[in-house]
Structures are given as C-alpha cells and as structure tokens.
C-alpha cells in the first residue's frame, strides 16, 4: 500500500473506530490494561498485558517519562454584577498570575470584565481577547493559587470522555510532579509504583523530562494537506541528569524508549535544536509525521490515538505507515480500548 511522504493528506490517517471502543473509565489496577507490541522493522504484532512490559525491556535500556502533573484547570464562576455563570479552562501560565484561558460563553468575557470563583476564593479580570478567541486574564487570590485550584477545580477530561471521573488522581500518573498540564500524558497512566520499581530492578534506567501538555493535543487537524497543519506550542524541560543518562545509554548500545508522545517530542525537539541531547528548556511546536528522521528514539510506549490526529501521524513516522494502519485495524478487531483511558502499544 504505502504513501507518498512528500504528499501526505490528513485523510490518509483515517480509520474506522466503533464508539464503544473509546474507553470511558480507567481499568483497575493500572497495569492490567492490554498491551500490543509492534516491531517497527517487521510489523510483527503480539498481545499481552501492560504488566508484561518487563518482558520487552532489556537491562541497559533507558525509559524516559514525562512527570508533568495535570491542573484541575476547569473552574466555574459567576460574572460580577449580573451573576451569570461562566466556565474557564486554564491553558497557559504567562507568569505574574496571568493566564490564557478558554472561556464559555465567550460573549460574557470582554476586556475589563470581572468574575469570581469558589465563592470568592479566586477572582479574575479579563485583560485581552486573542485572535483565536482565547482570553488573557489576571487572577487575584490570597494563599496558594494551585492549592485553591485543587479545592475548586475539575479535571479537564478530553471531550470524548463522557463519564464523570470518580477519583481525580486516576487522570494523573503515579510519578507526576511538575504542575502545568491541561491534559494528562496518558501513556504513563499504565504504570504502578511497583511496576516502575520492577523495571528499575531489572537494570533499566528510569529518567524524567517535563512537557506541559496543551489542549492543542485534542485539536483536530483541519488542513487537507498534513504539511499545512499548524502545531500548538508547549513548554518543556530536559534536566542534566536525564541528558547524561540518555547519552550513556546510547554510548553503551542500549535503547532509549519514550513513554508517551510528549516525552518523544521533548527528546526530538532538543536533539533538533541543540544538535545533541543536553540540558535544555524552551517551547516546542515540533510536528512529527512520516518522513521524519528520529535522532534519539529507539522505542515508544504509547496509547491508541484518534483518527487523523497529529499523534497517529507521529507513531506512523516511527513504526512506518503501513505497520501502524495494520496495527490499528487489528486493535479494532481485537476490541482494544482506545484513547486516554485505553490500552497501550509498545513500538520497538
């Protein structure tokens, strides 16, 4: 079959997904989710469970995880003066208590308008309206902003999850530390603390990067030609310890395996920007699709992604278009669970 990597169309990445395969709730315990393994060279597929990941890792490998923590970024408030209800979704922290937010209904949020949230725990003034309709707002509060969010905010679950999440921690990885994401780096949701320990005990290095996931992750690709799509920008940090570990692994002939597309994008962004892997931080809008030359990654642990999304394009770049489209056909046949709370795939 194959595709022309110089003339990619969004519709090339379509597959038919029955609605009932979109996971609405996480499985318990985390590591009993299913795991499909995919050999990126041969296309060979096998099926097991996530707790079997240790059978597929090797001593000397380096596993790179994204330790970003999701903000309970959806807050409900009222407009001062009228009492009209409003919903804010915090997107990007611009510093000095100023945030870019998505506001519904937007017509209530003109510059100079004031809102209160959590019965006065938090108040906000709209400073500006962006071209895309997002608002820049300034918050006022006393105490700790993130502690207030924990108290009054809700998890910004993806639009395809309709069920209410009983336990907010189930939309966080067990190793999440750095607060700032608008969505979870979901490939890591399958790990338990015990499984991570088992991975370390077998001689695999476990290292962390931080990439704060933006809601652009869920933004559909509307351009007909893939190359016309404009990626959103996200903030990343790659610490020195992680950089050193990756370089040692490469030198010794081990594999660098990213947990999640966010870890993958961080590593490949740094390699593209710096020409090597070293301590680095900044903003990335890297767009990875077939034809991309990977400089760092040898393997990827990831979930099953939406049709025609930038994420299915990314995995197609790593494993090959035909291999991925076949793997997704098999996943549908075998009734794998899809998207954020769904099952996992290991591309090696």
Q: What does this 3D model show about the protein?
A:
With 348 residues, the chain is α/β, with parallel strands linked by helices. The chain folds into two domains: 10-70 and 166-347, QueA-like (3-Layer(aba) Sandwich); 74-152, Thrombin, subunit H (Beta Barrel). 19% of the residues lie in helices and 26% in strands. It is built from six helices and 17 strands. The strands form three sheets. The protein has a nine-stranded mixed sheet. A six-stranded antiparallel barrel has the order 5-6-7-10-9-8. A hairpin with a 6-residue loop joins strand 1 and strand 2 (45-49). Helix 5 (310-319) packs across helix 6 (321-333). The longest helix has 14 residues, at 261-274. The protein is globular and about 65 Å long. The chain starts with 33 loop residues before the first strand and ends with a strand. The model has no long low-confidence stretch (mean pLDDT 96).
Question: How many strand elements?
Answer: 17
State the end-to-end CA separation.
Answer: 22 Å
Question: What form results from the Cα inertia axes?
Answer: globular
CATH superfamily of the largest domain: QueA-like
CATH topology of the largest domain: QueA-like
What is the ordering of alpha helices and beta strands?
EEEEEEEEEEHEHEEHEHEEHHE
Strand order of the largest sheet: 2-1-17-16-14-3-12-13-15
């Amino acid at each position: 079959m194959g595709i022309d990597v110089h003339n990619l169309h969004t519709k090339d990445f379509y597959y038919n997904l029955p609605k009932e395969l979109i996971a609405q709730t996480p499985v318990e315990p985390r590591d009993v989710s299913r795991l499909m393994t995919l050999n990126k060279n041969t296309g060979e597929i096998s099926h097991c469970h996530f707790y079997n990941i240790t059978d597929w890792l090797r001593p000397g490998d380096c596993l790179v995880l994204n330790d970003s923590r999701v903000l309970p970024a959806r807050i409900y408030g009222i407009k001062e003066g009228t009492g009209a209800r409003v919903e804010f979704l915090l997107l990007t922290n611009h510093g000095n208590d100023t945030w870019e937010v998505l506001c519904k209904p937007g017509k209530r949020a003109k510059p100079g308008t004031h809102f209160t949230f959590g019965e006065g725990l938090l108040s906000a003034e709209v400073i500006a309206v962006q071209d895309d309709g997002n608002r820049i707002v300034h918050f006022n509060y006393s105490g700790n902003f993130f502690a207030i969010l924990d108290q009054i905010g809700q998890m910004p679950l993806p639009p395809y999850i309709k069920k209410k999440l009983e336990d907010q921690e189930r939309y966080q990885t067990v190793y999440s530390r750095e607060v700032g994401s608008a969505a979870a780096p979901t490939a890591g949701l399958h790990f338990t603390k015990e499984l991570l320990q088992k991975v370390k005990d077998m001689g695999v290095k476990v290292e962390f990067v931080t990439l704060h996931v933006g809601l652009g992750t869920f933004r559909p690709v509307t351009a007909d030609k893939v190359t016309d799509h404009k990626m959103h920008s996200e903030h990343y940090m790659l610490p020195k310890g992680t950089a050193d570990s990756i370089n040692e692994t490469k030198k010794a002939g081990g594999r660098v395996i990213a947990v999640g597309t966010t870890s993958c994008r961080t590593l490949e962004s740094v390699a593209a920007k710096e020409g090597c892997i070293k301590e680095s931080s900044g903003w990335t809008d890297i767009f990875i699709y077939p034809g991309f030359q990977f400089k760092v990654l040898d393997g990827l642990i990831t979930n099953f992604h939406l049709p025609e999304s930038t994420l299915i394009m990314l995995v197609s770049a790593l494993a090959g278009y035909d291999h991925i489209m076949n793997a997704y056909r098999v996943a549908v046949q075998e009734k794998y669970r899809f998207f954020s709370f769904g099952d996992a795939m290991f591309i090696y």
